[in-house]
Amino acid sequence: MNEPQGVDLGSLKKYYQAGYDAVRKYTSSAYVIMSNPLDRDSKVLLPFVRAFDRVVIDVHYYNLFSDQFSNMNVKQNIDYIKYHRASDLRSLTTSNGPLTFVGKLSFHTHY
């Protein structure tokens, strides 16, 4: 599921469990990608995915849909990504944890 938003976390976990089981029915070596809900903390799936092998958490970062970013210039957006988004990614990186994939990174470009 791409960019789940506004869904019940329990239902999303059931969906991902079923998808994981379907993939594992055919192969144990493929990576299974689970997209983090857009409206939740990027670490919300970490406790859930620890039970699985070969899982990737897909995160999307948008510096678009909040007033916080509307008046930032390109350098300010890049600095936000460099310091805040990079910090968030480091918090997702845990020993023996899932891999992380940044599926989207979008920001305003004011000159």
Describe the protein in words.
- It is built from four helices and three strands; from the N terminus they run H-E-H-E-H-H-E.
- The protein has one domain.
- The protein is of the alpha/beta class and 111 residues long.
- Helices cover 41% and strands 20% of the residues.
- The protein is elongated.
- A three-stranded parallel sheet has the order 1-2-3.
- Helix 2 links the parallel strand 1 and strand 2.
Topology, pairings included?
Layout: H1 9-26, E1 32-35, H2 46-49, E2 55-63, H3 67-70, H4 74-92, E3 99-107
Parallel strand pairs: 1-2, 2-3
Shape: elongated
Rounded mean pLDDT score: 83
Question: What gyration radius follows from the Cα positions, in whole Å?
Answer: 16 Å
The largest pleated sheet is described as:
3 strands, parallel
Order of adjacent strands in the largest pleated sheet: 1-2-3
> Pairing-aware structural class of the strands and helices?
alpha/beta
Report how far the terminal alpha carbons are from each other.
35 Å
The total number of structural domains is: 1
Residue share in β-strands: 15-25%
Name the poorly predicted regions.
none
Number of strands: 3
Question: Which sequence of SSEs, written as H and E, runs from N to C?
Answer: HEHEHHE
Number of helices: 4
Question: How much helix, percentage-wise, in residues?
Answer: 40-55%
